[in-house]
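tool_call: predict_structure(chain=1)
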Amino acid sequence: MGYNVHIARNNEWWDEEVGGGISLDEWKSYLVSDPAMRMDGYAEADTAEESVLRYESEGLAVWVAYSGHDRDGNRAWFEHRNGSVIVKNPDVEILKKMLSIALQMEAKVLGEEGEEYDENGLAEGVSEAQSAYTKKPWWRFW
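tool_result:
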């Protein structure tokens, strides 16, 4: 499980009839214009059993300039789905990239509960100390 954050034009990104308001063609056009983004269409990860787990999605892209990008498979994946661009568990650096993209697409960055993120990568009314994206031990839920 994880927490999804969306780039969307509509506050009702979760409503399939309304959707996020961003078409796949718009997303692809954006990706062509941003040299720091690459459309892959799939993601792969090695498993402990020495097999490869593969996920395919026509709207799946990676932010290649992400500082957390490493050889072990950590990537900043951005996926277009149901009219919005989704990132799972973004850190503040990724949230700032999402905000940059949202500005260019005349959209906003929204959490699962509809909270809007600002230029600092923080949700409305949430301090950095309270942010879910502040580094905490993996076992800490609060």
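agent: Strands lie at 4-8, 37-39, 42-46, 52-56, 60-63, 77-81, 84-88, 108-111. Proceeding to next step.
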